[in-house]
Each structure stands twice: as C-alpha cells, then as structure tokens.
Amino acid sequence: MPRHPTHIGIAFFTSEGFPMQWVIVLSSCQHFNSIVWCGTIIESVNGWVESWTICENSPATYAPHLSLLGVIKVETVNKEASDIVRSISNLAWKAQESRNCDGGKKYPPSDEYVRQVVLHLCREKTITLPPRVKVTFATHIEGRISKLREKPASKINMYPIIPIGEGDVIFGRTKA
After folding, report:
1. What is the Cα–Cα distance from 148 to 162, expressed in whole angstroms?
2. Of 13, 31, 80, 98, which has the highest C-beta tally within 10 A?
C-alpha cells in the first residue's frame, strides 16, 4: 500500500509573559491546515512528559489560548504521520535529563525537546538536514523565527510557513 507523504514542521506559539512554546507538527497537507499531529512536552501528575494531540484544520487549534506565530517546515517524507510519532516516542525524551532544564525552572524548554526530536529524526534517517543547520540548529531556528515575525499574514486567520532552508513563504489558514 502506498504511503502518504507527511509534512514535518515546528510550530511556535506565544503568550505575553510566557516563554515561546515549540511544537512538532505533522500533517498530510503542505499548508498544515488539515488534520495535524502536534507533539510537545506537558506537565502531568507524572512530571513533564511528551504529549501528542491530533488537531483538526490547523495547528492553531492545538492551543487556542496562545497565538500561533507560524510554522517552520522541516521536510516532507514518504511515511505515515503515525509511524513518525512512533519513532519520536522511541526517543523516550525526559525533561529531567534535558541539558537546559534544571530543577528550579517552572517550564522545561520545549525548544530542547524539539531539537532532540529533529536530531533523532536525522539519526533515524527519516529526514535530512543540511550540515550547517544541524551544527547550529538553535541559532538557525532563531533566525527563522525572526523571518516568521517579519512575514505576518496579510489576511486574518492566516499564518506564515517558511522552509528551514531557503525558499518562499507560503501561508496556512487557521480556519478551513
């Protein structure tokens, strides 16, 4: 049976007074405005754990109380989203083991989780990143976040999607 392509991205959510939330997003649509798997870390009764949620029509529905800044598109692969989620879950990321997370921080860094996920997908040969992006991932992503802020949507209910490398900005819709 042929596999459906999955678009892998990183969505960024903001709220005044809180750190920016990074979320892995997986969709069958290049505009990320169909059913989207959203993965990040959340606090539960068992501490900080990985959480996956299926959102309809847009990553904006993942956290409606937050503002969706935009999406950085990482790559399109010929694998089912559920297979990618399973691979990421095999990483068994633990907030307590994060190199940036000490016990005194209230919010573990979602950016560290996303960085580990993207590098895991590279090691598993699910995605391929240019060497300059892998080596300076945090710096490169910060530059792409700046580009997202420069490219606000021209219409209401839209958000920018930029490639992790070079390429044109496209826009997704928060409402289908």
Report:
1. 7
2. 13
